[in-house]
Amino acid sequence: MLLPIIGISIFLFFWSLAASSIDTSLGTFPGPKAVVTQFSALYSEHVAEREKADAFYDRQVKRNEAKLAKNPDYDAKIRAYTGKETFFDQIITSLITVTCGFLLAAVIAIPLGIWMGLSKRLNSALNPMIQIFKPVSPLAWLPLVTMVVSALYISDDPLVSKSFLTSLITVSLCSLWPMVINTAIGVSSIDSDLLNVSKVLRLPTFTHIKKIVLPASIPMIFTGMRLSFGVAWMVLIAAEMLAQNPGLGKFVWDEFQNGSSDSLARIMSAVIVIGFIGFLLDQIMLQLQRKVSWDKSSANV
């Protein structure tokens, strides 16, 4: 723990030093102290908003009880609280969106990557398209996805909001490719001895994939998944900022547009949270890899 603490301390020292010498149109660039102050303020705002929500529901319950006492046939209803989302609410929104988008991408990418790794012809056929779409920015995908969702997702009582669906699909489109590529490489580079064993035992295709292909290619599959989760998180923040969909990206953009004296410190707080969450997501994938991989040395980085 000593070396990471030393590294973080050095970073905080140079951050404080640099921040005090940078003047912007909104004031001095925020240092660590200003960011900590804003974290406290953001938490206080969250608590105050939750108290408002609780009071809102309590008033409805009391009102319904009073009306039911007068009229037992009264149809009591509870309306949802429509107050603004707090910083912590937006963190949860972003986490749900990125997880759903990543899982959708994994469901598509891993089977496709396995198929491509097993079939050289399919790999040759699909690889050019993958290389073309892989570098496309989420800012290019987002308008197309928005138009398609608006045209096709029409419902009087939608299961999920259009903004959630737009962000989810954009995240999935951009995080597919690292998983597909790494899975295909992992499957195609399986040791020939393992493949020969499968041939000698005449394993059925499904058993061959389950017993030989997946265990041997898990390190490369998880490398692709870790890369994809990082890409998914970055893409989501960009998509939320551009489309003004609920989440951390929208919080950053709203604070930038707000232009108050605290805006820079609040944006810097969001930046630190975004980076920390990205680190946690990568560590979760790493721990999962250690659980399912027979080669523990492959999950050390």
Could you characterize the architecture of this molecule?
The structure is a single chain. 78% of the residues lie in helices and 1% in strands. It has 301 residues and is an all-alpha fold. A two-stranded antiparallel ribbon has the order 1-2. Helix 3 runs parallel beside helix 6 and helix 6 (162-188) packs antiparallel against helix 8 (205-243). It is globular and about 75 Å long. It starts with a helix and ends in a 9-residue tail after the last helix. The model has no long low-confidence stretch (mean pLDDT 87).
In a few lines, what is going on in this structure?
It is built from ten helices and two strands, in the order H-E-E-H-H-H-H-H-H-H-H-H.
Give the tags.
301 residues, 10 helices, globular, mainly alpha
Distance between the termini: 16 Å
Our count of helices gives 10
Helix/strand-derived category reads mainly alpha
Q: How many extended strands?
A: 2
Largest sheet: 2 strands, antiparallel
Topology:
Layout: H1 2-19, E1 23-24, E2 27-28, H2 32-70, H3 87-118, H4 120-133, H5 138-152, H6 162-188, H7 192-201, H8 205-243, H9 248-258, H10 263-292
Antiparallel strand pairs: 1-2
Helix pairs in contact: 2-10, 3-4, 3-6, 3-8, 3-9, 5-6, 6-8, 8-9, 8-10, 9-10
